[in-house]
Amino acid sequence: MAAASSPSSSPFISSRRLSCAAFRAAASRVRSPRCMLGSEQVRVVEEGKRMGVAEPRRPPVWTPREPAQEARLAALRPDGRDSRMKIFSGTANRPLAQEIASYLGVDLGKVLIKRFADGEIYVQLQESVRGCDVFLVQPTCSPVNENLMELFVMIDACRRASARSITVVIPYFGYARADRKAQGREAITAKLSANLLTEAGSDRVIVCDIHSTQALGYFDIPVDHIHGQPVILDYLASKTISKDLVVVSPDVGGVVRARAFAKKLSDAPLAIVDKRRQGHNMSEVGTNFLEFDQLQFCSYTYTFQYNFVL
Predict the structure, then answer these.
(1) What is the pLDDT of residues 294-307, one digit of tens each?
(2) In this structure, which topology does domain 72-226 adopt according to CATH?
(3) pTM
C-alpha cells in the first residue's frame, strides 16, 4: 500500500501557498512608491537620495493656548476688577470719558494727543496696552472730520501696541444722516465711515441712539446700539411734571421714538411737527396750525432731545 502523502505535498495546500505569495507580491506593488508616483517623479526622488539632498520639512503648526489660571488671577487687581481693561479718551469729550471711568472704578488711560503746525494729528499711548481690552471714547461731533481722524489714529496706535481687542465708543456718530442717496451721484458717507473704522482696526463699535438703525448694517464688525431713553425717563420722573404733558416729535422721522416716550410717560399725548427741508441746513415749519410761542417750545424740545439723547 502506498504511503500516505505528507501534508506539505498536498495539492490544496500548495495552491493556497501560491495564492498567498501572489497576494503578497501584489500588496508590495501597491505600497511601492513607484505605483503612487509617476516615473519622472520617482526618478527625481531617487536622484535626490543619491545626491544626499534632504526632503523639505514642513514647518510646525503653532496652536495658541489659553492663558493659565494663574495669569488670569494675576490680571485682577486687589479689588477684584480686571486690570486688562483700559479706557482712553480723545479730545472730543474728555469729561464724559472721565465720568465713565469713574463709574467703572478704573483710571482713565494716559495718552498724548497733539497737533502739528500743518494740522496733522499725533497720538502716543503713555502706558502699555499689550493683551488688554481697550475702550476708546470719542464722539465724532463738531468738528466731525477732526474728531473722526483723531479716532482713526488712536485705533491704529492701539492696534500697533498689541491690544487684544479695541472697542470704539461713539456717543454721537457723525455722518449718520448720510445713510442713503437722496439724489443721484451722492456719497453714502455713513457706510464709508463704517468701513474706515473697520479697516483702522476696531473690533467692536458702541453707538447711542443712532439717526437711523439701517446704518448699523453698514458695519462688518459687531455693533452695540444703546438707547438713552431710560436715562431721560429717570430724569423726568425726578421732576414735577404737570398733567398737561405733551411729547413732541420734531419731524416725521422721530415719530417712533416720540411714541415710545409717550407710552412710558403714562401714555401722554403726541404731537408731530411738519418740518420740510428746503436745502442743507435749511428747514421750514408750517405755521398754519401752530402759534409763534408754540414754535419756540417745539424748537426748544427738539434741541433738548438732540443734545441729550445723542
Answers:
(1) 333 333 333 333 33
(2) Rossmann fold (3.40.50)
(3) 0.65
